[in-house]
Design brief:
The protein is of the alpha/beta class. It folds into two domains: 5-31 and 297-405, Alpha-Beta Complex (Aspartate Aminotransferase, domain 1), CATH 3.90.1150.10; 41-293, 3-Layer(aba) Sandwich (Aspartate Aminotransferase, domain 2). The chain has 14 helices and 17 strands. It has a seven-stranded mixed sheet, with helices on both faces. The chain has a four-stranded antiparallel sheet with strand order 13-14-17-16, with helices on one face. A two-stranded antiparallel ribbon has the order 1-2. Strand 5, helix 5 (128-137) and strand 6 form a beta-alpha-beta unit. Helix 3 packs across helix 10 (280-294). The structure holds pyridoxal-5'-phosphate. Pyridoxal-5'-phosphate is lined by residues 93-95, 123, 125-126, 171, 175, 200, 202-203, 223. Pyridoxal-5'-phosphate binds next to helix 4.
């Protein structure tokens, strides 16, 4: 393996600082990842030299902006191995992507008696939009049960599949437990009964190369900021034929072909789903993040991240008083736990005092917290720039937390 974590860390300026007098150990990557110099520079360069609105100006800057913006779309197409660049819709993040599908596809296609399936471990972003659309259409939202270890119960899932099921929306990786879901199997079972599928890839895309054609998902949503890119930009991938059949989710400029008070006709893909001025710098920043990731052998990144997470899991299993929440075998990026006799928020605050950044709480996944009967957890989440040394720092800091709290 030719992965040099120190070299990677050197690319991320924010990591090299002290927090509360201690070297920063950033373990909140599930919430958002840090940005490499190349991304920061690309955004700064865009605003310094090229800034202009896209698709409409009759001048050089606008041409440059448009070229960079559309070239970013092509970068995303290649990154996901989508067939057509018009299958790549810019959004502001995973949340917007899922809402787009739920409202655009769901409002037109769901009716009373229909069912939408999500798993019990979904982020609220993959529950609430469906719940809202089900309320409007009379369809029912059903939760696929999760086993004690934190895996989707595939047997129960298969038993739930019936003619009534029209849509299955599933997380690729759980942000609360770290479980990697067998999405390919879930998708093909859904397709067998004629249901459509969406994969919430928010926690997956940074970890390994995702191939939407190989997955055969109908939609795939993710956020740039969890992939070393900027906030406020994300992508919804959708199969072209389905997107063509869907009506726009939001109206405004750019998404139209002609407008009159009698009737408005819509633009072609992907613009039909991109009303208003887009996040141009965000798209350029995200494409730069993808290009940055592509400078590595993605298998090396996976091997490195598995090594760090495996080490963290081993240390966790040996750590007195630590209770892991979620014990799925196939997992990525996340260690969710509780320390006996303490509250997650107190643990998080005391870790921060030692420079260790984690997230505490329900991780926008209240139903799975309820499943485990816990109000929340402490979550350490890892990215490519984390190392075994960061894991050691976490556990050394936990020793001090325990001394203080217990
Ligand atoms: N889905 C999952 C699994 C997530 O982890 C998150 C964010 O934490 C989201 C959806 C929502 O992402 P965003 O807030 O970027 O839209």
């Amino acid at each position: 393996m030719s992965f040099d974590v120190e070299k990677v860390r050197a690319d991320f300026p924010i990591l090299h600082q002290e927090i509360n007098g201690k070297p920063l150990v950033y373990l909140d990557n599930g919430a958002t990842t840090q940005k490499p110099e190349a991304v920061i520079e690309a955004i700064s360069h865009y605003y310094r030299y090229d800034n202009s609105n896209v698709h409409r100006g009759a001048h050089t800057l606008s041409d440059r902006s448009t070229a960079a913006f559309e070239s970013a779309r092509e970068t995303v197409r290649q990154f996901l191995n989508a067939q057509f660049s018009e299958e790549v819709i810019w959004t502001k993040g995973t949340t917007e992507g899922i809402n787009l599908v739920a409202f655009s596809w769901g409002l037109s296609n769901l009716k009373p008696g229909d069912q939408v399936l999500v798993s019990e471990m979904e982020h609220h972003a993959n529950i609430v939009p469906w719940q809202m659309v089900c309320e409007k259409t009379g369809a029912q939202l059903q939760a696929i049960p999760v086993t004690e270890d934190g895996d989707v119960d595939l047997e129960k899932y298969r038993a739930m599949l019936s003619d009534a099921v029209k849509f299955v929306s599933i997380g690729h990786v759980s942000n609360a437990l770290g479980t990697v879901n067998p999405v390919r199997e879930i998708i093909s079972a859904a397709h067998e009964i004629g249901a459509l599928t969406l994969v919430d890839g928010a926690q997956a895309v940074a970890h390994w190369a995702v191939d939407v054609q190989e997955l055969d998902c109908d939609f795939y949503a993710f956020s740039g900021h969890k992939l070393y890119g900027p906030t406020g930009i994300g992508v919804l991938y959708g199969k072209r034929a389905l997107l063509n059949d869907m009506t726009p989710f939001m109206g405004g400029g750019e998404m139209i072909e002609t407008v009159s008070f009698a009737k408005t006709t819509y633009n072609k893909l992907p613009y039909k789903f991109e009303p208003g001025t887009p996040n141009i710098a965000g798209a350029i920043g995200l494409a730069t993040a993808m290009n940055y990731l592509n400078t590595f052998d993605r298998d090396d990144v996976v091997a490195h991240e598995n090594d760090v997470l495996g080490y963290a899991l081993k240390r966790a299993s040996e750590y007195e008083g630590l209770r892991l929440v979620g014990r799925a075998k196939h997992r990525a990026g996340v260690l969710s736990f509780l320390i006996d006799g303490t509250h997650p928020h107190d643990v998080g605050t005391l870790l921060d005092q030692q420079g260790v950044a984690v997230r505490t709480g329900n991780h926008c996944a209240m139903p799975i917290m309820e499943h485990y009967g816990v109000p929340g957890t402490v979550r350490a989440s890892f990215a490519m720039y984390n190392s075994r040394a960061d894991v050691d720092a976490l556990f050394a800091a936990l020793d001090k937390v325990k001394m203080f709290l217990l």
